[in-house]
Amino acid sequence: MDAELEFSFQPNTTGKQLFDQVVRTIGLREVWYFGLQFVDSKGFQTWLKFDKKVTAQDVRKENPLQFKFRAKFYPEDVAEELIQDITQRLFFLQVKEGILGDEVYCPPESAVLLASYSVQSKFGDYNNFVHQTNYLSSERLLPKRVLDQHKLSKEQWEERIQVWHQEHRAMLKEDAMLEYLKIAQDLEMYGVNYFEIKNRKGTDLWLGVDALGLNIYEKDDRLTPKIGFPWSEIRNISFSDKKFIIKPIDKKAPDFVFYAPRLRVNKRVLQLCMGNHELYMRRRKADTIEVQQMKAQAKEEKQQKQLERAQLESEKKKREAMEKEKEQMEREKQELMMRLYQFEETTKRAERELQEQLDRAMRLEEERRRVEQEAARLEAERVEAIIAKEELARQAEDQLKNQEQLAAELAEYSAKISLLEEAKKLKEEEADSWQSKAKEVQEDLLKTKEELHFVMTAPPAAGAPASSSSSSSSSSDSESDHEHSEENSTYSAELQSQGINDHRQEEERLTEAEKNERLQKQLLALSSELAHARDDSMKTQNDLLHSENVRVGRDKYKTLRQIRQGNTKQRVDEFEAL
Question: Mean pLDDT of all residues in the chain?
Answer without folding.
Answer: 85
